[in-house]
Please model this.
Amino acid sequence: MSLTKDAGHLFRFAFLFVVAFAVFLVVRHFVVPKSFGEYGHYRGAAIGEIAARPLHYAGHETCETCHADILQMKKAGKHAGVNCEACHGPLANHAGDPSIQPAKLDTAVLCIRCHAASAAKPKNFPQVDADQHSGGIACETCHQPHSPAIQSGGTK
Amino acid sequence: MNLDRRHFLVMLPAAAIAWKYVLAGTPEASPNYTMTDHWWSMLIDIPKCIGCGNCVRACAAENDVPEGHFRTWVERYLVTDWHMESPEVISPDGGKEGFPAAAEEANGKYFFVPKLCNHCTNSPCTQVCPVGATFITPDGVVLVDQTYCLGCAYCVQACPYGCRYIHPEKKVADKCTLCYHRITKGLTTACCENCPTGARQLVDLKDPSDPIHAFLKTHYVQVLKPQMATGAKVFYNELDGSVR
Model:
């Protein structure tokens, strides 16, 4: 057959192509992660890995399982909606091991973070000019942070 | 059922596709958590924000956010009279240590705008990734697979909200995960947990009992840059038109 007589080079080329494709498939099998494409064009296992990152804030529900007394006090006052770690800081390590003591807090820094007077703040939010308001007396002398309204009798 | 060979062969690929969808709904490692039951987002109530910076600090502590970079930050706007196109915006250190006291402005208004990833349904950032390292999960959170990211920063440029950055040590894209490691365990995000006024609320749009549904019915709510059709899911209550 005159048609196939000189076709050898075509078959060699086709053979090379098939081999290259097979190599591509083998390499691809090893290089593409197992879970790639599980949910879309990404590595499905990444979702689980990100979900497994460590916690730093335990969450107020965790705090309340032990500190129910504070919860009761807080519930009645204006700070009912302020969660524990908003002032106390991240305490997941304390929740996991109660022998780890949280750092002592400084009300002179904490209270003013929210309550320093500024015209930029919503008008209905309680704000004070600290120097004018207390003249340097510590906030907790009059206001119990867990229930900040001034109690009769002054301190606590 | 009589199945001849021809029909059986036709059914094979159909069955394979169906099985793929069954697998796609399989929950991930977290027990009692089914991704397809949730569609996460956030509500930001502008009139409640006092600019204390608690969210920024909490985010940094929870997620080890590198110094000088932000997954969430707070901006303070001052809009004078009718000058909506040129508001004065400040965000010192992302609002991490709060804001300087502002004097009363007779002819303008102040307000705070907390910002974070909008976890867009049709996000430009995930579309431009050349390697499939960033994606939206079946529960609606835009994440970065940092083991797969090349650090090309294409997504950083693509985000219309400036919510991504290249991690200075890891040299890969980093961004808000909506505290995915918390919300999959039934906790709220670090920023919402630590917001003292409730200005930030984690929202599950697929949960019919979520208060967001009642809120959306009774309030005038906006997303950022709606004209970009990104499908942004962070809802802002009483958002001023000057916010970009």
Q: What stands out?
A: DSSP finds nine helices and no strands in chain A. Chain A has a mean pLDDT of 91. The first helix of chain A runs from residue 2 to 5. The CA atoms of residues 61 and 83 of chain A lie 9 Å apart.
